[in-house]
């Protein structure tokens, strides 16, 4: 199987991205890297990228009343939304997952990555975003921060 390389990021669903950024900065001494507004297939979102040690935390706020993040918060409350998992061979991963009988409900292509999302019912209630970075993986957290700062994160 095309294996998972690492946890790329952890995404937290929040009602107020700015307030959550301040909260995680004070609570965990997280470093704010960047905040941006994205148009994804699932709707408009505001995302704050935070560095916590060697890890990236994404604070995600829906900008649409019926947006997927707001639907998640209405159902489960603020908190863990998804794990971002990096692979080197997304097509190989997709082939293996589908061969094992799982469905992939969302595939998306961005200028900097390709990704699929696996259903929470297939992963004990956790949304799994599996992605492959165009141009290869980052070797260090500093490289990852550079990639975040250079994002042109719009769907193609």
TrEMBL record:
Q: Which InterPro entries does its entry note? A: Glyas_Bleomycin-R_OHBP_Dase, Glyas_Fos-R_dOase_dom, MMCE/EMCE_epimerase, VOC_core
Q: Does the keyword Metal-binding apply?
A: yes
Q: Does the keyword RNA-binding apply?
A: no
UniProt entry keywords in alphabetical sequence: Metal-binding
| Residue span(s) of domain VOC | 6-133
> Which PROSITE patterns does UniProt cross-reference here?
VOC
Q: Name one GO biological process term.
A: L-methylmalonyl-CoA metabolic process
Q: One Pfam family of this protein, by short name? A: Glyoxalase
What's a Gene Ontology MF term here? metal ion binding
Domain of life of the organism encoding this protein:
Bacteria
This protein's name: Methylmalonyl-CoA epimerase
Organism from which the protein derives: Quisquiliibacterium transsilvanicum
